[in-house]
Amino acid sequence: MNAVGEISPRPGLSAEARKALDSRLGERVSYTEAVRSQHGHSETHFASCLPDAVVFAETTEEVVFVVRLCAAHDIKLTAYGAGTSIEGSALPIAGGISLDMSRMNRILTVNADDFDVTVEPGVTRIALNNHLRDQGLFFPVDPGADATIGGMASTRASGTNAVRYGTMREAVLGLRVVTADGREIRTARRARKSAAGYDLTRLFVGAEGTLGIITEVTLRLHPIPEVITSAVCNFETLEGAATTVIQAIQLGVPLARAEILDDMQMRAVNLWGKLDYPEQTTLFFEFHGSQASVDEQVATVGELAAANGGGEFAWSSLAEERSSLWKARHEAYYATVGLRPGAVGWATDVCVPIGRLAECISETKRDLAAVSVPATICGHVGDGNFHVIFSLDPEAPSEWEEVESFNARLVSRALSMEGTCTGEHGIGLGKQDALVDELGEAVNVMRLIKHALDPRGMFNPGKIFAAN
Amino acid sequence: MNAVGEISPRPGLSAEARKALDSRLGERVSYTEAVRSQHGHSETHFASCLPDAVVFAETTEEVVFVVRLCAAHDIKLTAYGAGTSIEGSALPIAGGISLDMSRMNRILTVNADDFDVTVEPGVTRIALNNHLRDQGLFFPVDPGADATIGGMASTRASGTNAVRYGTMREAVLGLRVVTADGREIRTARRARKSAAGYDLTRLFVGAEGTLGIITEVTLRLHPIPEVITSAVCNFETLEGAATTVIQAIQLGVPLARAEILDDMQMRAVNLWGKLDYPEQTTLFFEFHGSQASVDEQVATVGELAAANGGGEFAWSSLAEERSSLWKARHEAYYATVGLRPGAVGWATDVCVPIGRLAECISETKRDLAAVSVPATICGHVGDGNFHVIFSLDPEAPSEWEEVESFNARLVSRALSMEGTCTGEHGIGLGKQDALVDELGEAVNVMRLIKHALDPRGMFNPGKIFAAN
After folding, report:
1. Nearest residue of A to residue B437 by CA position?
2. I need a surface site. Which of A124, A322, B91, B383 has the fewest CB within 10 A?
3. pLDDT at residue number A1
4. Handedness of CA B302, B305, B311, B314 (dihedral sign)
5. CA B325, B297, A166 angle in degrees (round to 5)?
């Protein structure tokens, strides 16, 4: 198993630091093994670790207090949201405090006329959308998991809607952040665009909590479309599926979602959800717009699919059918892990220029044929982003080695196509070498920024860069 | 006139530095008054200044050479593109070298299947679009002026298409940049999205050349829409015009452009272009899509306009008519300056949440009623961004004082509505105090980044922050 994150003996927090924490936060500081263990654990394949304490923050002022305390006592500080990070971004591998943000879950202001909302970072995307629905608005970024908005901002999350609505990079209008010196800043006001100085918003989005603690997020919203229609279509070939999506984009079809699932993924989805989709490469689509616009989109994409070896183009605008369809897509990870009892999941992702996606997936499938561990592929065709998910035997070190070297080949294949080592999962613990392979000298510029903003390496140590 | 930028005696470049420059770059180094003066001059209201030398770079390697030379000899370095900056961002106010990038104007690679292009920074947006047209692609960001792509990236430019296609923040996929230590980095590869480390692309976009010299830009492209239709509609009230656009956005109409021009701006446009538009608040629209989609958009917006006090909704899909319409909009600045012979232009911009735009423009018009200098208003309704343009008598200091205090009131009005002091012009020389008013402590974080990446303050000194 991955050596990073193994637990080494640590002295824990000093009595003085504990006393200060306890007197300010009382029962919202926990030193119990159960709570610490929960915050040192990740859904994915990284080894568990233990923070010295877990603090449940409820206000920005408390975050300021904790940051100042950590600065004064040289304690490491790692923020924790819903624990859904895939690359171990929230694991407190150097101990210290795990700052649980999930109780900062208030929706502060919905500005319906401005199409924006300001939330605390512990709000989850589903809770937010439930809150917004009555006002005819929605927040589109959808990574599958019910992650917190703070976590999604920190990993620059995206997901199935990004082809139309963008990622967290586009969705975040501004942040309130507590910096390493315990000051709180606002990175932007609520205007949709600004040319006022450096783009600090985009700097903290995707920084994986290594530059500061996000305590408020202002998000751009969209009107709920008049009509939403989903469709499923299986294809003879991967190329046919990818070409269908690229041609649709060329024709200006405003696809809301365009997801690809390979034959193995469809098999896993069928087994997991007791479904009976054909076990072939399949596209899942969603179309948003007026009735006339959606009708036209469906017709255009239907024709393209037929011309590219697509089968029956089954579509539905019923909310229940749509939701069961997307449930199948969203459960792709669990469906794959569930292929073997007692297995552990390992998900990786890369992103390439969209014209190279079919080639990249095809080569990856050929590569997978020689790997003994069961694996599936699914992805966001319109962005050139796809995932490979493995179902690993936790007791078989050879499987872990196989997947590790496969992952290295996958990254190097994506880089050779001018792509990136991660489209949406982040660097975390797992892709630090890949980041250097991808961006070289630019990583030193990132380090300069890290040192300037967090000179003592307090925030989320060991992430993005091996040594902060 | 603005005191910043006044020329103080300087020793100029050392003989050693001149010798090194001359021997590497020969006639592409100029010390003549005419060339230096051209590079120390701005279209707008800032005082002229003089660089000690102008260097015309042709390759990234030459930029590396110049940056290293400047670092070794403690020479200030300011990049220059098309000289269209509105806030004086390209003025070499501390002397040193003006690095003219306009000869780095090659279009390096068009990746039609990936919808992206890589260009040198001296390519202008019109040249780029002329080159792309045959491939059915276009680059949407359109600030009016035929700016260079490097300059547009550096000021985070946007313009009339941003409501649909975003600004340079969204358009730039990656940059090649020469940093202060003379190293070249690439901030990203060509994937549409990435979660690989800090978002250096977005950090350099909008940094106004204070963090490095951009030598290549990879841009996201869009397919040329099947149908493009423009429309003009005048309104009884500002509120009616703004409400029309907001309701259209609420209904999910994918407006490609939605521009507002006030009565004074329409008068200036009529005089300048010998046109006869009604001299009332007017919206200029553009719709992109399939014929069916555009027909539906036009119908919806036409109904909304009628319900909000709009007059006749005159539309055109003929390329010539459209181009004369948008010429009128794009010449708004010259039309206003031209209201008085011999006048100097002063353009400012702010951006507010879109629901506050009508209120902000209305208050601004009331404020303008008490200003003696002729002024017009135009803006990008769908973004909440508008401009006030003045036609100033260069010999009347009282007019400059009037405009300066008006500008301060405008900024403070926008900030009171949770907007920004500049939506697209940048900070440059003119809005440094406004930036501090807007973002407070966050400006100190920007300074930390500046010091980390350019510790000696070599790049574009005196911009964004008063003292680098």
Report:
1. A196
2. A322
3. 36
4. negative
5. 95
> Which residues of B299-441 form beta strands (DSSP E)?
314-316, 344-351, 375-380, 385-392
Domains of chain A: 15-103 (3.30.43.10), 107-223 (3.30.465.10), 227-330 (3.30.70.2190), 334-436 (3.30.70.2740)
From chain A, pick out residues whose CB is under 8 angstroms from the CB of B207: 198
In what helix (H) or strand (E) does residue B94 lie, and over which residues does it extend? none
B86 half-sphere exposure, CB direction, 13 A CA radius: 27
Phi and psi torsions of A150, nearest 5°: -65, -45
The band of A12, judged by pLDDT with boundaries at 50, 70 and 90, is confident
Give the containing element (helix H, strand E) for A73: helix A60-73
- Rounded to the nearest angstrom, the minimum Cα separation between B33 and chain A is 32
3-class DSSP state for residue A178? strand
Instruction: Mark yes or no for CB contact A427/B453 under 8 Å.
Output: no
Tally of residues, chain B: 468
Residues of chain B positioned with their CB less than 8 A from the CB of A352: 191
Nearest-CA neighbor of B346 among B313, B375, B372? B375
Say if A355 is an interface residue toward chain B (CB within 8 Å). yes
Assess A200–B contact: CB distance below 8 Å, yes or no: yes
- From B137's Cα to the closest Cα of chain A, the distance in A is 9
Establish how many alpha carbons lie within 13 A of residue B178's alpha carbon, considering only the half-sphere containing its beta carbon: 26
pLDDT digits (tens, 9 = 90+) for A397-435: 999 999 999 999 999 999 999 999 999 999 999 999 999
**Paired tokens of B445:** 């974080």
Prediction pTM value: 0.96
A9 pLDDT exceeds 70? no
A412 touches B at CB < 8 Å: no
Residues A116 and A219: their CA atoms lie apart, in Å, by 5
Kindly state the average pLDDT of the residues A253-261: 96
Report the C-alpha gap between B41 and B91 in whole angstroms: 7
**Alpha carbons B88 and B2: distance in angstroms, whole number:** 11
Phi then psi for residue A458, to 5 deg, are -75, -40
| B158-182 pLDDT, tens digit each | 999 999 999 999 999 999 999 999 9
Residue A219 β-bridge partners: A117, A172
Residues of A in Cβ contact (< 8 Å) with B384: 114, 191-192
Angle, helices B397-416 vs B432-439, to 10°: value is: 20
